[in-house]
Structure formats: structure tokens, C-alpha cells
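Priority: medium. Attachment 1 of 2:
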């Protein structure tokens, strides 16, 4: 069962699942979601042992991590990392992830990384006047980066700080990508990974949201929408859950063989106390989207994405379109008031479909049985996070840029 759950990632050329399973990873967290989101995704990826120092963790995410991966062993020490005497706690850790937002921990961990030659991956949200975003950097001895101060928190001791659940989703995904690379002996980013955009306005309205596709992208889009305060959403998907989904579709640990959209809607309603709805159906040219304010395209085939683009164009609907592969992802936003081309046109999907063998997007079986391509959790959660962030920018009166994420690039996007 465990091997079947990981099937889609062990197909990746050069993948070393044993390196992930045998490693112990240290994590320093804070009063936010970052450490918990990282733990959930690490569990899905098959990292089986985390040692976390943080004042608290999110019960929903940690319980999900344990149910998703029965081998997952998380040791949680409640508190802050404020003294070098705590160093012994991390004995045997292959690397340490630093999500803390106070300079004392940052300095202690960088010193530990230098003296003991342990990689330190630092990731955090920042608030800079009218702008907000995140920075991520992987430090290893010998990389004495001249701008190291850019990853140091301005406050020396634990205190309140800016945090954003959507940005946290992206950060934890990129940090997990860096973690995977270290454990497998692959290259990590040499550059500071940074993302910055204008502050978003607090939203009081509750738009009607349609999420088409209830796989990994749809799950993390739904999670980001919940963290952003949205409650009125419908999940549409015709497929059922299969075991090979569970390396990235984190809320389906108890839903194998069941409808994806039904299972996701019920899980979100139970865990997050919302009133979402499910539609067990294909999105096609007869789908009625008149009642929705925005549609999130989380499907896994080009034919459906073309239909989504055309329907949203014909009905003047906002479309946030996302797509992923094992090492990349993209987010294209269609806003009727200002967009000249649809996502399908921008991405050249018509040419792609025309050149390949004829097939219908109305499949007869589950998505992974139909399309057994390699897939991992990181690109899905990163892409989904940017999809929700793009929508937040639109609602705040800012024009989002299309995002093209590449895990093999130093700058990533």
C-alpha cells in the first residue's frame, strides 16, 4: 500500500525514495501555519521523521499528515529555539528548516550550519511597507552569501509578525523542493528565491467560486481559499480517488474508491466548518457557469482547459488557470475587463491538441489510471498557492502577472 501511494513520484528519473524515508529533518517553527504545512507535505512525499521545535502546530494539518502516511513520525517540542543548548535536539538531522521570524533563532541556526556543515533552509513571509511576499534561501558552509542579512528577521526575539496562509502554502512547497534536492544529492538554488506583490485588501464579500478539478491542484486551491476567508465554493470532478493519488492529494487518505468532489467537499465542510458543494460531473460546453463569479481551472487535460477558456470568454467570467508537471507549473489569469487572450490561446493549447491523437476529455476511468504521469506534491501546492494569490490581487485592484514556475531554475519563477 505504501509503495502504491508513492507510485507517481518514484517514476521520476533519478528519484531516490529511500533517501527521503531514511532521513530525519529538523524544523524550527513559529506561531503560524508554515511548519504545519511543511509537515503535511513532507509526510505526503514520504519523509517519515520530523523533529519540530515550535510553540504550536495546526491540529488539522498534523492529524491529516499522520493519517495520510502511517509511517510518519513527528516529534514536537513546544517552545521557541532561543538557546544553543537546544542544539543537541537536532543531533542526527540531515538538514534543518528555519521558518522562525526572530533573529536569535536565525543567527543560532546559521552558526550551527557553518560549524557543523549542516544545510539550513530558511523560508518566511515579509511585510515591507506597501508590499508583501516571501524569501527563501538554502545556506551551506562555503556559500558565505554577501547578502545574508536579507534572510535575517529584524526582530531579535519571538514576537508577532505578518503571516499569510496562501504565501505559506507556496513557501512550504518550495522549501520541501529544496529539502528533496539536498536529501537526494541534487542541486539546490544558489540564489535568493523571492516573490513580492502589493498588499491585498481584506475581502468582506463572499463570491461564488467554482473549482473544476478536485485533485492535488483543486485541494490546495480550496485550502488557500479557506485561508483567505472564502466559504462559497463548489468542487467539480467526475473521477474517483485511487491509491496513487495519495502522494499529493492529501485529504483523501480515507476516500479511496470514492468520488473526489464529494470526498473533498465533505472533508472541507467537516474540517473547516464551511458549506461547500460537490458536482460529480465533467466540465463541458453545456456546463452552466452563470451563477459563479470566478472559475479555477485545476483539470489535468488540455481539452477541458480549452473548453473552460471558451466558456469563460463567452460568459465574461474570471478564469484562474493552473497546470503542473513533475518539476514545473504555470498560472494564467483571464480577466474579461482587461485580458485580450484566453489561457488556452496564450498557452497554445489548440496546437497541442490538434497535433496529438484524437481523444475525448470525458474519460471513462480515474485520472491517474488514464494518465499515469509522474507527479509530486510540491509543484501542485506551489501552483495552487499562486492561483489563489492571483485572485486576491484581482479583488484588490491589482493586475496579477502570469506565473511560470520551474523547480530546476535558480530563481524558480
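Attachment 2 of 2:
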Amino acid at each position: 500500500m505504501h509503495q502504491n501511494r508513492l507510485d507517481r513520484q518514484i517514476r521520476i528519473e533519478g528519484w531516490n525514495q529511500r533517501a527521503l524515508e531514511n532521513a530525519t529533518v529538523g524544523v524550527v517553527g513559529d506561531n503560524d501555519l508554515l511548519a504545519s504545512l511543511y509537515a503535511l507535505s513532507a509526510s505526503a512525499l514520504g519523509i517519515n521523521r520530523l523533529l519540530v521545535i515550535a510553540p504550536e502546530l495546526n491540529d488539522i494539518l498534523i492529524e491529516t499528515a499522520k493519517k495520510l502516511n502511517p509511517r510518519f513520525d513527528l516529534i514536537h517540542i513546544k517552545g521557541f529555539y532561543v538557546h544553543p543548548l537546544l542544539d543537541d535536539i537536532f543531533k542526527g538531522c540531515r538538514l534543518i528548516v528555519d521558518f522562525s521570524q526572530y533573529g536569535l533563532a536565525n543567527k543560532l541556526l546559521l552558526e550551527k550550519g557553518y560549524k557543523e556543515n549542516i544545510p539550513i533552509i530558511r523560508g518566511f513571509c515579509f511585510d515591507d511597507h506597501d508590499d508583501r511576499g516571501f524569501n527563501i534561501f538554502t545556506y551551506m558552509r562555503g556559500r558565505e552569501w554577501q547578502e545574508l542579512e536579507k534572510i535575517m528577521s529584524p526582530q531579535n526575539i519571538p514576537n508577532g509578525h505578518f503571516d499569510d496562509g496562501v504565501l505559506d502554502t507556496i513557501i512550504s512547497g518550495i522549501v520541501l523542493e529544496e529539502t528533496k534536492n539536498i536529501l537526494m544529492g541534487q542541486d539546490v538554488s544558489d540564489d535568493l528565491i523571492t516573490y513580492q506583490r502589493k498588499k491585498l485588501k481584506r475581502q468582506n464579500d463572499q463570491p461564488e467560486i467554482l473549482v473544476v478539478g478536485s485533485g492535488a491542484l483543486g485541494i490546495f486551491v480550496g485550502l488557500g481559499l479557506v485561508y483567505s476567508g472564502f466559504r462559497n465554493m463548489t468542487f467539480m470532478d467526475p473521477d474517483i480517488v485511487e491509491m496513487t493519488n495519495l502522494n499529493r492529494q492529501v485529504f483523501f487518505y480515507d476516500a479511496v474508491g470514492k468520488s473526489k468532489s464529494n470526498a473533498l467537499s465533505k472533508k472541507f465542510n467537516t474540517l473547516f466548518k464551511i458549506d461547500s458543494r460537490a458536482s460529480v460531473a465533467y466540465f463541458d460546453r453545456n456546463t452552466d457557469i452563470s451563477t459563479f463569479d470566478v472559475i479555477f481551472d485545476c483539470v489535468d487535460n488540455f481539452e477541458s482547459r480549452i473548453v473552460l477558456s471558451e466558456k469563460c470568454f463567452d460568459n465574461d467570467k474570471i478564469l484562474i488557470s493552473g497546470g503542473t508537471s513533475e518539476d514545473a507549473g504555470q498560472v494564467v489569469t483571464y480577466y474579461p475587463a482587461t485580458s485580450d487572450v484566453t489561457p488556452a490561446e496564450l498557452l497554445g493549447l489548440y496546437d497541442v491538441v490538434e497535433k496529438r491523437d484524437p481523444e475525448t476529455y470525458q474519460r471513462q476511468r480515474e485520472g491517474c489510471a488514464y494518465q499515469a504521469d509522474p507527479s509530486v506534491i510540491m509543484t501542485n501546492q506551489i501552483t495552487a498557492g499562486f492561483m489563489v494569490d492571483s485572485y486576491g490581487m484581482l479583488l484588490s485592484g491589482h493586475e496579477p502577472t502570469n506565473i511560470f514556475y520551474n523547480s530546476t531554475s535558480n530563481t524558480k519563477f
